[in-house]
Design goal:
The strands form 11 sheets. Strands 6-7-8-9-16-13-12-11 form an 8-stranded antiparallel β-sheet, with no helix packed on it. Strands 1-2-3-4 form a 4-stranded antiparallel β-sheet. A 4-stranded antiparallel β-sheet has the order 5-10-15-14, with no helix packed on it. The radius of gyration is 26 Å and the shape is globular. With 680 residues, it is of the alpha+beta class. Helix 5 packs across helix 8 and helix 7 packs antiparallel against helix 8. The longest helix is centred in the middle third of the chain and has 20 residues. The mean pLDDT is 94. The chain has 13 helices and 37 strands.
């Protein structure tokens, strides 16, 4: 077996329309990078694709995105040109992906006074490698292809692909490549075009794309500081391309977690992304809730980690094998400790944002089952706290959002032993129990007082066990280990405690101070681990890097708990990072300080786009505006904004009503309009 090296992504070009994606070099060529390929349903249907013009490559001068699903590669053909300094012949290769394949076109343009001819040869191959192999840097043998007329076909198991190239001569070369060839004439001062299209299908697919997805509200931001507007605009384009349904429920959509590795349903990721998007409407949240409710656990199955009432972790077309890691996850896997509580939190928040009462009422049985899972299964040892452990030995060792094997460690770098009780999971559970009780009361159901009492006991237990101290004062530990010892590393998990009701005012102030300390705040967002920990490294996946969604959660909590200056500090850092990434925020980036580098350093294997990183733009917008809905009205905060200059926002939604907000140069609300909108 080849060495396992995860492909680097940071300088590659990606276009997507879930469940299809295409990765290439900036010139458009596919094959020089390990991630390169055209993928459908997590299978690489094209592993190499190159174009030659009379044996020459085009000299790339520009790569121009056309939205999330399209890109143009503009190049020169100087071997056809004259001897003058100005380029007079160019080629525009445009690649577009669809929910079922990819379309390529090449347009030749010339301003020469005479016609020129060229022989164009496109060479393609496919290894039909599944994404888990690609992620390990591995490949499969080439798939044999067959030709009939102007169509080539190939496939393996459930995957079938075909290519049609009008006007081309098709042949299988001695090295196994499929070759398409044309002889074209470019008229004097004119243009000509050729192209091909690939279609793919997967009989084993568990998710599918939306060919005509319904629209969602698109906010319009205008003002002196355009960074947030540009981030929101880019993010919404990416999120639109990540929309999927399950095959089992084609009427309800959700957001795929991210490209390239996570083009499917993830409980935690899809919940957070839908929660972030609530200021733009409740339909996505309602759909996401229903999809996950339809997969809610009903039995106890050790192999899949399913338990009654539990919300799933991920859905795949087959077993996910992670080479070299000893991990084998079944197609429907429930190994997550936080998605169940977060599902309840999303249901409550969607209701506050105006999700129709009938829709909420229809999910009360799943709400009750989720609450009972927290009590009966999430708290496996009955100590009043939620913990997790992988009982199979081949599942995820860590089952919070920081799910890498080394994410929970002591300040000296030693790994904590499980079962693990994470601090933020207790906050989610507290919020779920208290807000679940509110929903039960509102819809005339019994049990509200019982769940408030359960939450109160959890809060008391948290205060007894999680709070520890160092030279800088008191703070909550990241977790309790198997011996119920407080794991003393200072981490970004603290930010998830704010705004949930778990902390009192004094405790919240201590956490807020930690979040903006130089040990956690990089200047480009919140580090996952403080710099004073032995395990800290700026390029560690969960041990010092910056995750956009993680910082956005902290910003939201700070804003809700009244720490506006601290929230503004972190917002400023994310806006600086967004500018450095051309407003397509990756899954994560380096935790290097902004004082060391003028722009954020990429984490080279980070997904981009990723749903919760993109949706974080909408959450940050809501935090900047101080939005606080209660199902009947939206209260707008009047605290100073971290943006420079005035800001006008239209296209926000509360239930089925639009509203807008205007901030002045000092960041204060000067106008608000729309049904139920209050300034307070």
């Amino acid at each position: 077996m080849n060495a396992i090296l995860q492909p680097l992504l940071h300088d590659e070009i990606v276009i997507l329309r879930a469940p299809t994606q295409a990765w290439s070099s900036p010139s458009g060529a596919i094959g020089s990078g390990a991630i390169h390929g055209i993928y459908h349903s997590d299978v690489r249907i094209v592993s190499r694709a190159e174009v030659r013009y009379d044996g020459h490559e085009a000299e790339n001068i520009a790569t121009v995105p056309g939205g999330a699903e399209s890109v143009a590669f503009i190049g020169l053909l100087r071997h056809l040109d004259d001897s003058t300094p100005d380029p007079r012949v160019r080629v525009v290769q445009r690649r577009t992906v669809t929910t079922t394949g990819a379309i390529e076109s090449i347009v030749f343009e010339s301003t020469l006074e005479h016609e020129v001819s060229s022989t164009v040869v496109v060479r393609l191959q496919s290894d039909l490698a599944e994404m888990d192999l690609v992620k390990a840097g591995l490949t499969e043998p080439l798939a044999p292809m067959s030709i009939e007329g102007e169509t080539a076909s190939w496939g393996r198991d459930a995957i079938e692909a075909s290519l049609r190239a009008t006007g081309a001569a098709l042949a299988i070369a001695a090295d196994g490549f499929l070759e398409l060839s044309w002889t074209v004439t470019i008229p004097a001062k004119g243009s000509t075009r050729l192209g091909w299209a690939i279609e793919a299908s997967d009989a084993d697919a568990v998710v599918r794309g939306l060919t005509t997805p319904p629209g969602w509200s698109v906010p319009v931001l205008t003002g002196g500081d355009d960074r947030l507007a540009r981030w929101v605009s880019r993010a919404l384009g990416d999120l639109d391309a990540l929309r999927l349904t399950t095959v089992a429920d084609p009427t309800s959509e959700f957001l795929a977690a991210g490209a390239p590795w996570f083009f499917t349903l993830f409980g935690r990721d899809s919940i957070w992304a839908a929660r972030f998007m609530l200021p733009l409407g409740t339909r996505l949240a309602g759909d996401t809730l229903r999809v996950l409710a339809g997969l809610q656990g009903t039995s106890t199955v050790a192999e899949t980690a399913e338990q009654p009432g539990k919300i799933m972790h991920e859905l795949r077309r087959g077993t996910l094998e992670i080479p070299g890691a000893g991990i084998s996850l079944p197609p429907l896997y429930y190994g997550t400790v936080d998605a169940t509580a977060l599902w309840v939190c999303l249901l409550h928040d969607a209701w506050r944002w105006g999700l129709p009462g009938d829709e909420v009422r229809s999910m009360i049985p799943q709400l009750v089952a989720a609450l009972e899972w927290m009590r009966d299964f999430g708290d496996a040892d009955g100590d009043g706290l939620l913990e997790y452990v992988d009982s199979t030995g081949k599942g995820l060792a860590n089952q919070g959002w920081k799910d890498s094997g080394d994410s929970v460690q002591w300040r000296d770098g030693t790994l904590a032993d499980g079962p693990i009780a994470l601090c933020e999971v207790q906050a989610y559970a507290f919020e779920a129990a208290t807000h679940g009780a509110d929903l039960l009361d509102h819809f005339g159901m019994d049990g509200g007082d019982e769940w408030r009492a359960w939450a109160a006991r959890l809060k008391s237990r948290f205060n007894e066990t999680f709070w520890i101290q160092d030279a800088d004062g008191a703070y909550p530990a990241i977790a309790l280990d198997a011996q119920k010892r407080a794991v003393n590393t200072v981490t970004s998990n603290l930010g998830h405690l704010l705004g949930t009701g778990l902390l009192d005012d004094r405790q919240a102030a201590l956490v807020a101070r930690r979040l903006v300390s130089p040990e956690l705040n990089s200047g480009f967002g919140l580090r996952t681990m403080s710099t004073d920990s032995a395990g800290y490294w700026p390029l560690s996946y969960h041990g010092g890097s910056v995750w956009t969604h993680d910082t956005a959660i902290a910003i939201h909590g700070l804003s809700r708990d009244g720490f506006v200056a601290e929230a503004g500090t972190l917002v400023s850092g994310l806006l600086a990072a967004a500018s450095g990434f051309d407003y397509r925020m990756p899954e994560l980036h380096s935790g290097d300080p902004a004082s060391a580098f003028a722009s954020p350093v990429p984490y080279p294997a980070a997904c981009r786009p990723q749903a919760w990183s993109a949706a974080a733009a909408v959450s940050v917008l809501g935090s900047v505006l101080g939005l606080n809905p209660d199902a009947q009205s939206a209260t707008i905060g009047v605290s100073p904004s971290p943006l420079a200059g005035s800001l006008s926002v239209t296209g926000l939604r509360l239930g089925d009503a639009d509203f807008s907000i205007v901030l002045n140069d000092d960041g204060e609300v000067t106008a608000a309009s729309g049904a139920g909108v209050l300034v307070g």
